[in-house]
Structures are given as C-alpha cells and as structure tokens.
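so i finally got all the pieces together for this one. its two components total, 674 residues if u count the protein bits. some of the lines might not be protein, just check the labels. i wanna see the whole assembly predicted at once instead of chain by chain like last time, that was a mess tbh
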Amino acid sequence: MNQLRLDPLTGRWVVVNTDRAKRPRAFSPPVPVQADTSRPCPFCPGNEEATPPALETYGPEGHWSVRVVPNLYPAFEGDDPFVVTNRGPVFTQATAGGIHEVLILSPDHRAPWPLLDDDQTAMVMAAIRDRIDEHSNVPGLRYSQAILNAGREAGASVEHPHAQLLGMSFVPRELVEEQAGFARFASRCLLCTVADAEENVGYRVVYADDRVLVVCPFWSGVPYEMLLIPRNHGPHLHHSQPADLAAVGRAIKTVLGRLRDVVGDVAYNLVFHSAPYRAPEPYHWHVHILPKLTTIAGFELGTGVLINIVNPEQAAEELCVPGHHGAGAPVAAVATG
Amino acid sequence: MNQLRLDPLTGRWVVVNTDRAKRPRAFSPPVPVQADTSRPCPFCPGNEEATPPALETYGPEGHWSVRVVPNLYPAFEGDDPFVVTNRGPVFTQATAGGIHEVLILSPDHRAPWPLLDDDQTAMVMAAIRDRIDEHSNVPGLRYSQAILNAGREAGASVEHPHAQLLGMSFVPRELVEEQAGFARFASRCLLCTVADAEENVGYRVVYADDRVLVVCPFWSGVPYEMLLIPRNHGPHLHHSQPADLAAVGRAIKTVLGRLRDVVGDVAYNLVFHSAPYRAPEPYHWHVHILPKLTTIAGFELGTGVLINIVNPEQAAEELCVPGHHGAGAPVAAVATG
C-alpha cells in the first residue's frame, strides 16, 4: 500500500506506505540495538546481490567507489502521475509515483562522510548531481530530495554510510515554504543576502572558503545546526559546476569533523535543498546540517515552533574551523542584544 | 537568554532559550538513562519545596490531587509584549514573554494517565481548562498550548507524569495552519464533518461515546496516531462543559490503555489544540495523540511530508475498544482503494 493522503487541518500531504514497515528495525526500539552482525551488510563490497542491480557506479573499473541502487523499500515508486481523488468532503488522496534510491558513500562500512578523502566526497557530490539530473528528465517528476541520515537517532536503518535520493511527483510543503521565503525577499537573493550578512557580523561563521560558506544560522532551531551556502548563486544543485560541488563535499567533511570533535559522535541529518526542476521562482540551493541532540516533543509538534537550548553564537564559536573564522565579535554582543 | 528569531526561509519563529539547557537531561543521551534515583522526585508529595510555590492545587484540603506549578526552566516568561525588531535585512527577532507551567497529574509517581481513575482524569481536564482560562485573561497573551510528553523518547525530562501549559504572546504556526484549514472548509465545521465522515465509514473509529469520538485519522502521519474530537462543537477547550471535559479525560485514559495493550509501553505526546482566545475564525478544539514509535528523519525534516508505515485502518482495527467500534468494514476495502 502506497498512497498520499491530505491532512485537511494543515494542508499537508502524508505518505501511507506499509511496505516500509518491512525494513530492518522500522520501529525505533526504546533501547538502541547493537549492529545486526548475523546478516552481512547489504551495502558492503561482495554483497552486491543483496540489493537490486546498481543504477550507477563510480570509480575504477571493477571496483566501485560510489554505488547507487534502488531502495528496496521505496517511499515512492512507479510512474503514476500525481492524480488527486476526493472520497467525500474530507478524505482526499493521491497516487504517489516516484523514485527512491540509495547512494552508498564508499565501500568502507566504517567511514562516514568526515572520514572520506576529498576525491571521494567530490565523487559523492557528483553522484548526487547526476541522479538529480537524471530524475529531472523523468516525465511526471517535479522535485528531488537528497538526504543523509547518520546514526540510529537520526533515523538510519542501515549502518553503512549512505545517502538517499527521492524523486517526487509533487513539490513538498517545506520547499513551497522556502520558495515563498525567497519570493517575499524579492529585491535580491535571500541566501546571497544571508551569506553577506553573516560574514559581516562574522561570529556565526563556522567555515568559509572561496566557494562555500557554512554558518550556524541566526535562526538555528536545533543545537549546533549549520547552514551551508554555496557562494555561486544558482537554484539547482544539478546545474552546479564540479569545482563548486567538490568544495561543498569538502566543507561538509570539515564541519562534520568539527561537530564530532566538539560534541562527540552524534547522529545527524543532512538535507540538500535544490529548487524544483522547472521552478521559475528565485531560489539558491543549500544544505541543512541538523545534529540530533534533542527530541522533537509535544510543544514542537503542537506549535511548529522549535526551542533551541544552545544559542547559535555559542555553537559557532565552538565549531568554528581554525583559519576559517569570521570577524570574531564577542558572543555577548548578540546574547545581550 | 530567551529570544524569538525568525527563519526567513520558512517564515517560522524559533525560540532560542539557553536556560532550558540547565534542565535535567536536556540533551537526549544516545543511550536511555535509568531514572536518577539520587535526587528525590520534585513532583512527588513531600518534595513540594523542590518546585516554586503552587499556582493552584486540586483535591481535598491538605492533600493535593493535582498540582500546578511554574516551570523552573520556562520556554516563555515575563510580560514583555510581542515586539519585533529587524537587525538588518535577514535578522529578525522578537521578545518572548509568556507563561510556562507544569501540571502534575497526580501524587502517584508511577501512575500515567491510563492508570488514573475517572475522577482524577476529570480533575486533570478541569485543571487544564482553568489554567487556559486564567491565561486568557493575562494582557498580551494570545494562545495557550497544553501538551503532555510521556516517556523519554517523547521528550519527557522528569518521569513523574505531568502535562505542561504554555501561554504565548503570539499564535504559533501550526495553529495558524489549522485555522486556515477550518477557513478553507467554510460551509460547515471541518472537524464536525470529519467526525460524521469517520463514523459513516466506521473502520477507523477507536472509541465512541455520546460526547467524544476518537479515530485513527485518514491522514495519520505516525503509526497508531489518534485524533480525539469532542462531539459538542466549540472552538475553546476552556469554554467546554464539565461533562464534556470529563468525557475527554476518560476517553484519553481508555485509548492510551488500548495503545499500551496493543503496542506496549511506548512513549507518546498529547497535544491539546484550542483556538486562540479571541479568534473570530471557525475552529473546533481537539486532542492529537501521537505515539512515538518512529524517528523524524532527513526526509521528513527536508520535505515536511511524513511517511507512515502503519496504515490507519490497520491501527484502528487493533486499537478499537470493544463495544465502541464503528461499522467495521474490512480494512481491505480501503487498502485496495
């Protein structure tokens, strides 16, 4: 069963997909479990038959470095067009065609993003670009969501480091809201302005090079949240230049390494936001880096308002990569502002 | 430090509140911890001096049954009016005055809502009503959010069963969205229509009496999600009749007991949604019951789209309270629809 259903209270779509209940550890157990060593890792070299055949591989002939496979438990599948059906006044449903892929970061089961070398992270970013580019040519698809869940608390169900790519037949709520944010800020690109403003104040900058800026944004909703902004303005990740993508891969590696140094081996989510393929609206692609240190509880669920117990000025001061810091104004300047 | 900051990408407010980092176990540890038995429970009888003085108590003279105290680590505090300040084009902040209270469900450390008797749950609901009524008379406040977090995975930081009441100086996003949902559905009340429609189809009804209906809503976003709808239409919980409130308290007790029978001792959040105090728009107060069985991961964070791996028809069939079931049409009728 795979169906979109509309919540008429909030206007949000929900995916009801009972096939995904068959995933390993679909329900978070109350106590974290040890890695299941009774079965071989489906993403390790030598176990390629545990996944569907690769859609794409990268690296030297005969030895893949990055491997993209269909997700065995897809949230979206098939080429159904997006057709909405009303079953009475309050029951609105739609088909949920689309694509759901897994991108295995490297052959190394023990190497998350911060432990990969620069060539490997460049290859990962190139693979993400290629997959989104491929999705953008599939009739009926409108948007690709690339994500990475690292650690059980962040929702990873397989330990071997991997990202996921979901090609969707509708533009999801969060993107629509961000597009509205860019549209409200009409005079200039919102994120170009944010990049300038954060560099101006300086003390929320975590990492900066000539192609990428990473900050703990002023409006951080979770402790140690980071926002990665490519300096070259462009709505689409899949239209970015190789050098920019390589720089993004390197910046992610660097700041995740800092996160580990400062906070420890915490779970986190990466969210790659790129404009819908054929969006005429202004947009600037970017990456949200969301450490999972706190729980989304009743207040956050009930109000949509996040409570962040670590101020981003403090977080940036701790995370800041030596040699990449901004102006370094004292944290108190904002804390008392 | 306690400050509202605006995310210009999504238009959402974030609360930056570093005082709350001082709470017991503010950061979710990667491994659940045992109850801290080295310190006495601040919510148990005899330890009243561990909290600020009670704002209200209920029950026989000298022996409280329900106790309401100020939260030691308030998310909102003080009578600052809601004043927005722009610090440049992308840094928008506001003061965050308000009220944050704890409502201790009963003197019994080991008795969550499903183990309370009907008199006690009626008293809890009356206390929630009284506090919201009190908030509604505080100048500058516009909305009260009542919630209950049960279990560590759902965000509870103190084990002794308690609810929380937050009086806010602005109407939060989720409420604005629900108000828009009611406004879109202009011909008749949206939730009265949902109640009729769910009773008509029957097979998502979990509990029904002459005052309350509980369903696994058609658009459930999480496994075993329930929606409690009081049958008497009214926008405001704090204007409800005692008999209706008592019936809601009893229904919550019954369905949480069923949840425990069916799924086990899982964490959950209760969200009480009542209209902003002086809202002219149509609304119908209700309670969201949100078991915490799965993790909000990168896809959900990045898109705002929930993936529910248990279809609500199946959930309702399992949860359904004997003698309270609806029409009982076969699950397959929808699963194949």
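Residues 29-34, 326-337 of chain A have pLDDT under 50 and may be disordered.
Residues 10 and 222 of chain A are 23 Å apart (CA to CA).
anyway lmk what u think
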